[in-house]
Amino acid sequence: MSVPVQIKLRRAENLLELSYEDGSMLRLPAEYLRVESPSAEVQGHGPGQAALVTGKQHVGITGVEPTGNYALRLSFSDGHDTGIFTWDYLEELGREHATRWQRYLHRLESAGASRA
């Protein structure tokens, strides 16, 4: 687990930026973080129970609150604030961004749903 040395909320770009001691950086869009929230509301309580979150194209991050030394609690402009994003989960979201995003877009299309 890598702990970021700097956390910035880039409101104009609508993303969360995490900088690490080795010089690496994660830039995670608000919409992506919202639809991948680790909360039970989004992920469900067991395998196969994840909800398809729609209509979040314009959601923003309204708050970033450290939770102990292991995570962040993010608050979103749609009122969602129950997900605790651990450092490991944020790194996973960064590593798997392209794959997860394409899977999300495919799920939206299959459901006839929209990002808007």
UniProtKB/TrEMBL annotation:
Residues 7-90 form the Gamma-butyrobetaine hydroxylase-like N-terminal domain. Pfam families: GBBH-like_N. Keywords: Iron, Metal-binding. InterPro entries: GBBH-like_N, GBBH-like_N_sf. Transmembrane segments: none annotated. This is Gamma-butyrobetaine hydroxylase-like N-terminal domain-containing protein.
